[in-house]
Design brief:
Elements: H1 6-15, H2 20-38, E1 49-52, H3 73-81, H4 89-99, E2 106-109, H5 116-127, E3 137-140, H6 144-157, E4 166-169, E5 185-188, H7 190-197, E6 210-213, H8 216-221, H9 225-235, E7 241-246, H10 251-260, E8 265-269, E9 274-275, E10 279-285, H11 289-302, E11 308-312, H12 315-327, E12 332-335, H13 341-352, E13 358-362, H14 363-366, E14 376-379, H15 392-399, E15 401-402, E16 409-415, H16 418-431, E17 436-437, H17 443-449
Parallel strand pairs: 2-7, 2-8, 3-5, 3-6, 4-5, 6-7, 10-16, 10-17, 11-13, 11-14, 12-13, 14-16
Antiparallel strand pairs: 1-8, 9-15
Helix pairs in contact: 1-7, 2-13, 4-5, 5-6, 7-9
Bound molecules: adenosine-5'-triphosphate.
Adenosine-5'-triphosphate binds near residues 82 and 113.
Length: about 450
């Protein structure tokens, strides 16, 4: 690369016209941040953890309590202080591996919210020696905001361990030339981290004992990040522990993971399948968006809906519908594409807390967001892909429920043309589940669906 600063080069790249891939990388990073901002609980998962050990002869060791890990008392206090009573599914196997002596390398994949961040933060805090006043752990995140978010977890978990210090290698954090960092943990984005390790020499990479690469799937979607991460990894000593985490594991992520983590142990936790088994599905025939709105009002008039999510195809429809519902005195929240990630998180959080009863959104905005307590989902527009074909995956994600104890739910689809009837039929065929017709002029009939 011609530029002498990677961080600057990445900034310039990002500032350049947004290509499709830059946009998709940003979407991924935003979605990941949104999930972190609004999540207050662990995502439950009853699937088995799949483990592939570097040395298949060594006994597989898993823990059911944090005590078994023989953590420093300050850290155990930190863990309990965060309200964690016992290790999550992935933590049960990942933590003993990460804390083993000699250190073991690990590649771990599980869906967002299953406890990966907490796991590697605990590993970093356990491995540093606070008496040594130099960086010993490096942690790479795909974006500035995600780095800050992970930093917060380090600060929280290390609250009772103030001798361990943390510094952020992110754009805007400019240090004087010639400075040698005293903090034991450095968290940042690849461009700045690479500058700090090589050109600016704030960090001596030879002394690093733990290297964490978080959100590998988001990382490789951002141009430049992959090469920068590999260059950093190459500067580290052979005996440095390498840890890599990812929510998904497609071939490209896997190729990258193997370049970053030699001789890895591998842990995978399958995502809990979503099913339509406990969902009652209906469709309503209409001729226009006004009629769809009228049908919606009829439904609201007939049954008590604690909280509902309504999906529209475009921002414009979503805005219009939210306005109409407000006029009818509904407490409506609108999630819209032009909102900043933090604003979106605030809207979802309010809705989750029950401050609003209806959330109107476009699919792009709500992708990957789980609001567990919603029992009624309304597809004001059916989900279609770019070519106008039914988007079955999105349909399932909008209305599906995970886990064996999934609560019963209700899904109502608005159909307003021959085309959308065709889409509905194809969705029905795909899942092999009947979607019943509902006459919204018949109050008795609507009342029945609530039972
Ligand atoms: N053992 C535990 N017990 C209870 N809560 C936990 C435990 N571990 C983590 N959590 C909480 O669960 C939520 C998700 O954890 P965490 O952020 O570590 O997951 P993650 O897999 O890293 O997700 P993401 O990829 O979105 O960052 C957080 O609110 C965290 O505080």
């Amino acid at each position: 690369m011609a530029s002498d600063s990677w961080a600057q080069a990445v900034d310039e790249q990002e500032a350049a016209a947004e290509s499709v891939s830059v946009k998709s990388a940003k979407d991924k990073a935003a979605q990941s941040l949104l999930n972190k901002l609004i999540r207050s609980n662990l995502v439950n998962n009853t699937n088995q953890v799949e483990v592939l050990q570097k040395d298949p002869n060594s006994p597989l060791y898993s823990v059911k309590s944090f005590e078994e890990l023989r953590l420093k008392p300050q850290l155990l206090q930190g863990v309990y202080g965060m309200g964690f009573n016992r290790p999550s599914k992935i933590q049960e196997t990942a933590l003993p591996m990460m804390l083993a002596e000699p250190p073991q390398n690990l590649i771990a994949q599980s869906q967002s919210g299953t406890g990966k961040t907490a796991a590697f933060v605990l590993a970093m805090l356990s491995h540093v020696n606070p008496d040594n006043k130099y960086p010993q752990c490096l942690c790479l995140s795909p974006t500035y905001e995600l780095a800050l978010q992970t930093g917060k977890v380090i600060e929280q978990m290390g609250k009772n361990y103030p001798e361990v210090k943390l510094v952020y290698a992110i754009r805007g954090n400019r240090l004087q030339r010639g400075v040698k960092l005293q903090e034991q943990i450095v968290i940042g984005t690849p461009g700045t981290m690479l500058d700090w390790c090589s050109k600016l020499k704030f960090i001596d990479p030879e002394k690093i004992r733990v290297f964490v690469l978080d959100e590998a799937d988001v990382m490789i979607a951002t141009q430049g990040h992959k090469d920068q991460s590999i260059r950093i990894q190459r500067m580290l000593p052979k005996n440095c522990q390498m840890l890599l985490f990812s929510a998904t594991f497609e071939e490209t992520v896997w190729d990258f993971a193997r370049r970053i983590v030699p001789d890895p142990n591998i842990i995978k936790l399958k995502r809990e399948e979503e099913t339509l088994d406990t969902i009652k599905q209906y469709y309503v025939l209409c001729n226009s968006k006004e009629e769809k709105f009228e049908a919606l009002c009829n439904i609201y008039g007939a049954i008590t809906i604690a909280q509902a999510m309504i999906f529209c195809h475009t921002r414009k429809t979503a805005g219009w519908l939210a306005g109409e519902l407000s006029k009818e005195n509904h407490q409506v929240a609108l999630l819209s594409g032009e909102m900043q990630v933090e604003q979106r998180a605030a809207v979802i959080e309010r809705f989750r807390d029950g401050k609003e009863k209806v959330l109107v959104t476009t699919n792009v905005c709500a992708r990957g967001i789980d609001v567990e307590q919603v029992s009624v989902v309304i597809n004001f527009d059916l989900p279609v892909d770019q070519d106008g074909n039914p988007d079955n995956e999105t349909y399932l994600h909008r209305i599906g429920r995970t886990g064996r104890f999934g609560k019963r739910g209700l899904a109502i689809n608005m159909v307003d043309s021959r085309m959308s009837m065709n889409i509905l039929n194809r969705i029905q065929d795909h899942f092999n589940k009947k979607i019943e017709k509902l006459d919204t002029h018949d109050l008795d009939e609507i009342e029945k669906i609530a039972n």
